[in-house]
Specification:
Number of domains: 2
Largest sheet: 7 strands, mixed
Pfam families: MIT (PF04212), MIT_C (PF16565)
Protein name: MITD1 protein
CATH architecture of the largest domain: 2-Layer Sandwich
Number of strands: 7
Structural class: alpha/beta
InterPro entries: MIT_dom (IPR007330), MIT_dom_sf (IPR036181), MIT_domain_contain_protein1 (IPR052817), MITD1_C (IPR032341), MITD1_C_sf (IPR038113), MITD1_N (IPR045331)
Domain MIT: 1-71
Radius of gyration: 22 Å
CATH topology of the largest domain: Endonuclease, Chain A
Strand order of the largest sheet: 1-7-6-5-2-3-4
Organism: Machaerirhynchus nigripectus
């Protein structure tokens, strides 16, 4: 298993898919270290240690390369969420980008509106996203939301729910600034530590739960997803709305 994993790492490395190759190198190295511990043949141990040393050196070089890309504002990682995939709750998706220095967040999504649409729970999803920010480890002080008005009679309900979320966040020392645009199309989330995440479906990439008491209703990690693509960038300067 260790040999297959590092073989995959080398292939990804050659294809310049550095973030994925680094993960495979790290997993492969851990597996090979377990093999070394279980091997009694000293000659084999020596060969394994040589290869492990080579892989560790390459992994360290890739780490430096990725860090330089971040510093230069050229970092890009793409995550493909397959149809009906699970394990993509907000905490899992965003945790590595929510460092302790994050204090300001921008959410741009035209569909943070009606709760009772047939397949959309966008206002609940936004609330769940805010709950994740409240839990930390970041110390968010301000959230900026840019969305579009709901049509017809749904507008008053949309505004009422957002105002309720705003008031609730204020109890945790967090200010929610809400703006509306009739021309907004893009969906992206930005943190003031330089990370920007673009999700094809915005925050609304989860499928409708089968029932109010079905597995996945409360825990988003267990909720099946719609197929979508997540693009992660790192920029030196996070633009503001």
């Amino acid at each position: 298993a260790g040999a297959e994993t590092v073989k995959r790492a080398v292939q990804l490395d050659a294809a310049s898919r550095f973030q994925e190759s680094l993960v495979c190198y790290q997993e492969g190295i851990d597996l090979l270290l377990q093999v070394v511990k279980a091997t009694t043949d000293e000659a084999k141990k020596h060969r394994y240690r040589q290869k492990i040393s080579e892989y560790m050196t390459r992994a360290e070089d890739i780490k430096k390369h990725i860090e330089k890309e971040k510093q230069d504002g050229k970092y890009h990682k793409q995550i493909r969420i397959e149809e009906n995939a699970t394990g993509f709750g907000y905490e899992k998706l965003f945790h590595e980008y929510l460092t302790e220095i994050v204090s300001e967040v921008w959410v741009e999504d035209p569909y943070i509106r009606q709760v009772h649409q047939a397949s959309r729970y966008s206002l609940y999803n936004f609330l769940r996203f805010c709950e994740m920010l409240v839990k930390g480890p970041c110390k968010v002080k301000t959230i900026h939301l840019l969305t579009s008005y709901d049509a017809g009679s749904g507008r008053s309900h949309q505004i009422s729910v957002l105002e309720e979320i705003k008031q609730s966040l204020s109890n945790y020392g967090i200010t929610l600034n809400i703006d509306f645009s009739s021309s907004i199309h893009d969906r992206e989330i930005r943190f003031n530590n330089g990370w920007m995440i673009k999700i094809g479906r915005g925050l609304d990439y989860f499928k409708k739960p089968q029932g109010h008491f079905s597995i996945g209703y409360c825990d988003f990690d267990l909720r099946p997803c719609h197929e979508t693509t997540v693009d992660v960038f790192h920029t030196k300067h996070t633009k503001k709305m």
